[in-house]
Amino acid sequence: MTQQTKSLHRPSQRSNKAIMKKLLGHDIAVSAFLDRFNSGRFPHAWLFEGPVGVGKAHAARMLASVVLGGDYQLGEGSLTVNDEDEIAHKIATGAHPDFRQVQRVPDNNGKIPQSISVDVIRDMNGFFELRAAQGGYRVAIVDSVDELNANSANALLKTLEEPPEKCLLMFIHHGSASLLPTIRSRCVKLNFSRLKDADLRACLGDDDINEELLILCEGSPGRLREMAALDGGVEMLRDLKAAMVDWPGISAHRMPSVMAKISKTELHLELASSFLAKKFSDMAQSESSGRARSLYASYWSRLYNVRTKARRLNLDLAEQSSQLLGLVRDLSNEMRATA
Q1: Residue 40 pLDDT more than 60?
Q2: CB within 8 A of 8, min separation 6: which ones?
């Protein structure tokens, strides 16, 4: 799709100096949605599919603002919504009477459940049975349908199969769990891809982003924000690289310091895991030996399994970091043995 500017502007309801919120890198999906909305032949159910953190939920909230009458512009490959527009502000704060954000809610003990409960979906169905407070659409975002259980997924079908007039459902789907065919078949699908480096930089408003973080975030602006804000994250990566600079040899005296930095927080551990997974993958591709490539592939898989098992067993960060660096030492030994 060409980057042609479209004049789709509604006057702001507030100050002309309002800060504008932008959605970058998803112009094809957004244009498809708005074209149908402005055509008058507007489907009631949409499925926003793509990797975690690329901006699906952000896009859904911005488009909800548009549907409910908010101030917006579409042009130069980006959707812009007025951050001080009254409608957008109410959606952002959960105060709009014709909007619902449907997601997991804490129980009486403050614990977040593993799935969206059937009661939450029934509450959403009840919301759609009411008359719109402002006479237009009623809009709900389900974030995410990956987190529905069997009962809540089936309850969702009630509104999906028999939608009232001017009902809009937007489903966020990360792809981590399968979706009922009966849900998928009733939705218009929009694909949200990983963002390019230029759009990632623009999302953060910073051209001086560490190149390694741009690679490791895998096109996710949400993940890049987390990585860029991580205290000591770039320093940790630098030390981890230094410890492996003579690969397959590793620097034994650097490892205690590296482990202390990796085990600082869950995000430090996640960043180190991403770095090592990328390192194993890159080294496998550069190897001419089939035996070496198989070893790297095996350890890449073991790295993933260690993280999955650690989360399931709720291991502390020091134990997880020890297991992570243990894999690096074991792979180093095996690679030197095959040299």
Answers
A1: yes
A2: 34, 38, 72, 73, 74, 75
